[in-house]
Specification:
It is built from 3 helices and 5 strands; from the N terminus they run αβββαβαβ. It is α+β, with helices and mostly antiparallel strands. The protein has one domain. The radius of gyration is 14 Å and the shape is globular.
């Protein structure tokens, strides 16, 4: 569940991640690094995730956040950043009833305190 349902600026997401990390929490930061086609959030959008699954920000408006959070928990334990890619090819998008067929790449990395 989100720590704060009010949309935060990317700066506020970074501030929250830093506050959690300095408070002794394990934290990961997810950042949209590339989009192609239709994507719900622009490059640079961020999501901060705490080890208890609290999060602030958004990388997709809700479409992939659940998977990004799950992967971030593993990355917090392993300590290495990872680039995740999500997308549906245009032809497949129409088959499943989606109006867009975009792709999004998200880098997830642990935050050091």
């Amino acid at each position: 569940m989100s720590e704060n349902p009010i949309p935060l600026s990317d700066e506020q997401v970074l501030e929250q991640a830093a506050a959690w990390a300095s408070g002794g929490h394990k934290v990961a930061l997810a950042t949209v690094i590339e989009t192609w086609g239709s994507a719900p959030r622009p490059v640079g959008s961020q999501l901060a995730i705490r080890e208890d699954t609290a999060f602030v920000g958004s990388v997709s408006g809700g479409c992939i956040e659940g998977d990004v959070i799950t992967r971030a928990l593993d990355i917090m334990e392993g300590g290495k950043r990872e680039v995740l890619e999500y997308g549906v090819p245009d032809a497949k998008a129409w088959e499943v009833g989606l109006a867009c067929g975009g792709r999004i790449r998200v880098m997830v990395e642990p935050v050091e305190s």
